[in-house]
């Protein structure tokens, strides 16, 4: 009983504490409207666009560097540097970039080990040590269970060639 009366007393006290704001909403909106600043910033005048008609003449194209600048920026080609031996025959996997190929497995007959490579079309190709792979004249130098070691031959842009080793990991 005591709890019920205590709850009633607390609820009544809470309700007495709530008093509605009896100010007029219309008066408040009018007061805020009067206090608001109304400044209009004038716009900048619009400058009319004038199109320029380009007529091709014997002069250079507008987005090309002058010939003097192009020849000064070109590094000099080296004459005595390493060149790879030219090859005519292409292996089937030489038409794909290494990033497109996936190393899927290893096969061995006891004497030699070859790798299974998946092409972007999903076709599996077998490749062994000494065969070529990739568009950068890559030659397989090692086949093992974890990776395929490939020596790529890349042009340096000056007429010479550099070699680098790439590992194609088993996926």
TrEMBL record:
<dbReference type="Pfam" id="PF04351">
    <property type="entry name" value="PilP"/>
</dbReference>
<protein>
    <submittedName>
        <fullName>Pilus assembly protein PilP</fullName>
    </submittedName>
</protein>
<keyword id="KW-0732">Signal</keyword>
<dbReference type="InterPro" id="IPR007446">
    <property type="entry name" value="PilP"/>
</dbReference>
<feature type="signal peptide">
    <location>
        <begin position="1"/>
        <end position="22"/>
    </location>
</feature>
């Amino acid at each position: 009983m005591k709890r019920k009366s205590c709850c009633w007393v607390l609820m009544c006290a809470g309700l007495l504490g709530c008093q509605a704001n009896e100010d007029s909403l219309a008066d408040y909106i009018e007061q805020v409207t009067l206090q608001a600043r109304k400044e209009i910033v004038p716009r900048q005048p619009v400058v009319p666009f004038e199109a320029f008609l380009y007529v091709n003449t014997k002069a250079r194209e507008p987005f090309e560097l002058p010939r003097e600048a192009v020849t000064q920026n070109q590094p000099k080609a080296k004459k005595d540097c390493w060149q790879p031996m030219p090859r005519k025959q292409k292996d089937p996997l030489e038409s794909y970039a290494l990033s497109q190929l996936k190393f899927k497995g290893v096969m061995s007959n006891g004497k030699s080990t070859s790798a299974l490579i998946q092409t972007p079309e999903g076709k599996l190709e077998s490749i062994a040590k000494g065969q070529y792979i990739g568009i950068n004249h890559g030659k397989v130098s090692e086949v093992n269970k974890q990776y395929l070691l490939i020596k790529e031959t890349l042009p340096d842009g000056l007429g010479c060639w550099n070699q680098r080793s790439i590992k194609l990991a088993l996926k």
